[in-house]
Amino acid sequence: MTKPATISEDWATIVAVREPKERFDTCSLFNSSHDDSCISPIDQFIENALGLNKLWATHPTEELAPEIGILFLLGYVSAVESYMRALVRRLIYCDQFSQECCEKLQLSYGAALHHKADVLPEALLEETVFSGKAEIIKALEKFVGFKLINKSIVDLLEQYEMVCQLRHCCVHRFGKLGAKNAIALGLQSHKEFLEKPVLLTKSSISSIADLLFVLVKSINNDVFRHVMQRSATGKLKGSGQIGIGWTWNKAKDKRLYQSYYLVFASQADAQISPSSSDLYERFRKIHKQAGSRTREK
Amino acid sequence: MVTQATNDDFLNSALQQRADYIPIDELLAETSEDGELFQRVQKELTNRGFRTIVGPRGCGKTHMMRFAWLRCKKSPTLPFAVYVSFNRYFRLEPLLSSSAGAIHQFHSWVLARVLIALRDSIKKWKPKKNINTDEIFTEHGFSLNQLISFVTKIERNQPLDDANLALSESLSIEGIQNIIDTACRYLQRKHTVLLMDDAALTLTPDYLIEFLDIVRSLKSSTIAPKASVYPGTTEVSPKFHQGQDSIPVPVWISIDDALYDSIMQEIAIKRVKRLSNIPADAQAMLRFASFGIPRAYLTMLDEFQRGEFKTTQQGVNKIIKEHVDARISEFRSLGMKVPKFEKLIITGEEILNEIAKELKAFNKTLAASQKKQLTYGVQEDELTPIVDRMFKLLVEAGLIYDAGTVKHGSPSRIYRRFLPHTSLLLSIRAIDSGGTGGIKQTLEAIAFKTTKHPIRKSLSTIAPNIKFEELSFSLPKCASCGTRRLTDIQRFCHNCGHQLVDASTFNICLDTEIAKVPGLTDWQRYQISENLPRLRTLQDFLAKQDPAADLLTIRGFGKRKTAKIVDVLNGFVDDFLS
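Output (structure tokens, whole complex):
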């Protein structure tokens, strides 16, 4: 409305701006009372993702505002990454075989000084990211000693990789497809979308979320299977016996089994995990043979 | 001593009606080869084409396949045959809610089952040249032990180890085709027929679609798959085209067939001892009541011999009533096994009863002119996809016979003809010459000529209470908040946001008490609960890695007897869970 004063000689102020109202302080931004040490990684994922689900699942129309779609995508991938981080951390803390994998790894002095023992493994992961197929496979092998060969999970990870390419567009380009991402997704099929924004509807968000749920639950089950099997049939360096010392006596094994069970079990899912007693019995039924044979040897 | 004898008796009779348990050597002697139908099916089972053998439970599919296998073995001019049954597929159902790779694992399971059956066939074929069967397998990179370990683990829902996973990856259609062709060459036959029994996979539509894909791909110029299915099975897959991909071969003999009586009787003569002790009238009634299902006829004759009835009339009535009840409760159990079908099952049963009542009323008016009618015509445009699916379920359970379509005048008046189960009609006395309702009168009425046209009334007239336009699949509820989902493809609950994962129905089925499995006779039920108190539910039975070991602890149970009991129970359990 008002025209600029003609007497000003400021030829650089092209937009109007003022000082920020307060100084930015990150300390006030964190919830120090939060404690998730007793929540399993999978439950953390479910709680995080469920919070996101509720925001769109009850939405009456199929169309979402494009900006909201972008934020959902970021949120879900972040939930996966956070799950992977928590899983690896908890495993290093409780599983001797995983500890063996990490013995030689280095840690920053600051972390060693200030972290509590159970979150110390987190410091090992500081340089690690989980935003892609290769990264997840590499990290599981490096920290847990688990080679992922299950084809159906590899296939899920390939789709996860595509989601991560989209995420990259959302983080850095407000949703527009960049050349590097287009190459990763297949340039021939994607070249016409270069510099075009991603448009996520309710159903596309739903299929992305579904994929990530399936991926995380599958990884959870497969790593659990591997770790438990290894705990009964694997051999620790320098140890004469096979396994980590299962006695196959339910009362005696309870604590040890529980320490693993709590890393993987879910109480937050729509169908909660079978009880630890049930799963222990199934586990014992198959593996006590292997154990007793080794004891005879 | 007395109980010993009756126990053995019970086992033998329980085994005898199931073709799977006729020892293969006795199969030839126990088979009635009469009838054009039998000959035609046998021809279809050994030719070079892909065929689906279509019929409801108990109509003789397994028998036909095993017989074909035996014929192939005996005659060098016939092809090499591999018989493989997929009746354990339902045990893979829990994978659908516990693993993202369920379909993939199912695929490998099917191929592994084929390989194990292949090895079985080669061994039993006793090749002239001294072939080491295992060598053929090793040459193609398969280890039998690995295959068995893989199949066992999958069927028991055990997690696979790395070796199993590696095996699962190594199984491919081409690999299987190659090894089958190698075996076929060794045995000097020109082609192979792959007899795939129990391939209807009704309870897991997800697997069925994959299965039809596998079978289609297995077909080659030298391999002819033959799959035994229920009516309507192949229509589940959008990619599978009956007629183009495979030619259906019906094996269910119609009650209207001119040779019906002679074919059924021939089977009874071959299979039932002391048949002549049963009054001819009773035989005729039960033959008609068995609705073209040989197994039903044999079971009912056995029941008649076993039961101590005051009069023939009372015995026949009781057996027929029980037979209907068992068929109906088997049909209802489908609703538990596949919750999606729940509404269709309930409505299907209502419609079936209404149709039977209509026929009864109609036959009353015909009795004076000595005519009868067993068929009900439904106008084609009333058979919307969902109503059609409902009828398919009835046909699959053997409660209705689909006699095909017929045109009456203008194209808009095309009718599909359905015959309800004859036991049901008999049990409500829908066929009667108008007398006192005794066996004589009923047999008289059965012999009446059939009127030219079936009853043609619209479904909405005979069942005004059913809202056909609202009929739909029952969509499952959310496991967390209990809200029913809105669409079939919905992935998350629209109320609480939880991921929707269908609960495994296999595990629900395992809670079924063995004594309540439909299809067991009173006598069998009694014997099982008497002799096997510790095996109460299917769960108890399947949880035992070696149920025989448990049974052997019971006093008076020897090895042979135990093995037989386990066979019987396995048979019923597999049947119920498939």
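Residues 289 and 469 of chain B are 34 Å apart (CA to CA).
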